[in-house]
Recover the amino acids of this structure.
């Protein structure tokens, strides 16, 4: 599958799409998922509660945000792939994070949820026929193709993995 063209998503998402190397998105999603699980596997609960500064999210909350974001991107991709013409809603990541319950959960349970969501994303994307990848819709007031949403999901994970490494000192 080719990388989406710039007109397949809003300019805000260029940074996510640009982070994803190569053209085999399904293989990239598998590799990234394994890499993120490995990155977090050695962390204990104390590390899971680490914040790099006051008012910043914990490691657990960052990972839960990645999970929630991937669910939103794949939901939007599914809707558009199936021909939805209504504008799909956005989501306020900070409002979602406030209510996600991640800090009361074990890090291992969030890592397991991430693995399950990633497996479901790969299964969903693997089932789309060529025509579905090119379908266009609107989410949060922005135009998207199904293909672009899949690349954004991959880039979103890579962005937050970088944040975990550079700001939280994970890995």
């Amino acid at each position: 599958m080719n990388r989406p063209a710039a007109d397949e998503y809003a300019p805000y998402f260029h940074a996510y799409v640009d982070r994803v190397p190569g053209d085999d998105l399904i293989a990239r999603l598998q590799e990234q998922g394994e890499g993120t699980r490995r990155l977090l596997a050695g962390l204990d609960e104390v590390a899971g509660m680490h914040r790099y500064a006051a008012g910043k999210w914990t490691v657990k909350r960052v990972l839960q945000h990645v999970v929630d974001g991937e669910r939103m991107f794949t939901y939007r991709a599914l809707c558009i792939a199936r021909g939805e013409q209504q504008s799909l809603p956005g989501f306020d990541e900070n409002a979602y994070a406030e209510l996600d319950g991640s800090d009361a959960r074990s890090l291992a349970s969030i890592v397991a949820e991430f693995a399950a969501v990633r497996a479901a994303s790969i299964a969903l994307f693997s089932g789309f026929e060529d025509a579905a990848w090119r379908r266009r819709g609107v989410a949060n007031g922005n135009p998207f193709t199904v293909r672009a949403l899949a690349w954004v999901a991959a880039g979103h994970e890579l962005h937050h993995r970088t944040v975990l490494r550079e700001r939280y000192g994970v890995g």
Notes: The CA atoms of residues 77 and 146 lie 5 Å apart. The chain is about 60% helix and 5% strand.
